[in-house]
Amino acid sequence: MPREVRLSHPDKVLFPQDGITKADLAAYYEAVAPAMLPLVRDRPVNLWRWNAGIEGEVVVQQALPKGAPDWVARVTVARRRGGTVTHAIANDAATLRWLANQNCVTPHVWTSRADRPERPDRIVFDLDPAQDTPFAAIRSGALRLGEALHEVGLEPFAMTSGSRGIHVVAPLRRTADNDRVRDTARAIADRLAEQDDTLTTAWRKDKREGRILIDTARNTFAQTTVAPYAVRAKSGAPVATPLRWEEL
Q1: pLDDT tens by residue, 172-220
Q2: Where are the domains positioned within the chain?
Q3: Residues 41-63 pLDDT 10s
Q4: How far apart, in whole angstroms, are the C-alpha atoms of residue 186 and residue 201?
């Protein structure tokens, strides 16, 4: 039986320039659930909440909000520095609607699943361009990165971030822990940056000199990436959109 999620303040405007309300956001996530759920199922979720709308401050919340319905899936994971935290897991459309009711505009998910949180099943590269970098250059960098992943036997797909960049993602078999995956990602990125002077792994912006950063930090334990099909907190409500490699 479908679960009913009654929205509090459904007419609350979250995107002032666009007039998009909480009810609109919830309706979007319900509609996109058939495509989104296979890509986020069983993954710990961080809530990026804009309680006063996207022109206000964001609250990044790891822990499952108090008062969550019993039917919302969850997992308790250990923190590397001690203690634990219980995350929501978005396994059905009702949970996506419930997250929207928490003013969670942009859910972020782990690169691993709840049953083996230290064994990622994705390796993620976030191409982070300078403000004036043309999209063609970002696309070219993503294609070069995809070639490098194909060379080591991986099958990448791309995702427009809903902002300026592109994520390049490849599935893994969960044989390596986060540290090894992060180190592998960094080695691939370093090698590519040495071969292509439009790319860099320099974290500091004043060291990039207009080049596109290949960010591999998302592969660290408990780090997250924007969920596929998530709405970004920007005017126009752009969406992080997965692409087949041939679509890129």
Answers
A1: 999 999 999 999 999 999 999 999 999 999 988 888 889 999 999 999 9
A2: 13-118+224-229, 122-215
A3: 999 999 999 999 999 999 999 99
A4: 8
* CA–CA separation, 93 and 32 (whole Å): 9
Angle at 58 between CA 118 and CA 185, to 5 degrees: 30
* 1 has a pLDDT exceeding 70: no
CB neighbours of residue 118 within 10 Å: 15
CB 149 within 8 A of CB 172: no
Assign domain 13-118+224-229 to a CATH class: alpha beta
Cα dihedral sign, 144-148-150-151 = positive
Q: pTM for the full model?
A: 0.95
CA distances from 48 to 42, 54, 180, 192, 196 (A): 18, 11, 28, 32, 34
Please tell us whether the domain made up of 122-215 is placed in CATH 3.55.40.20: no
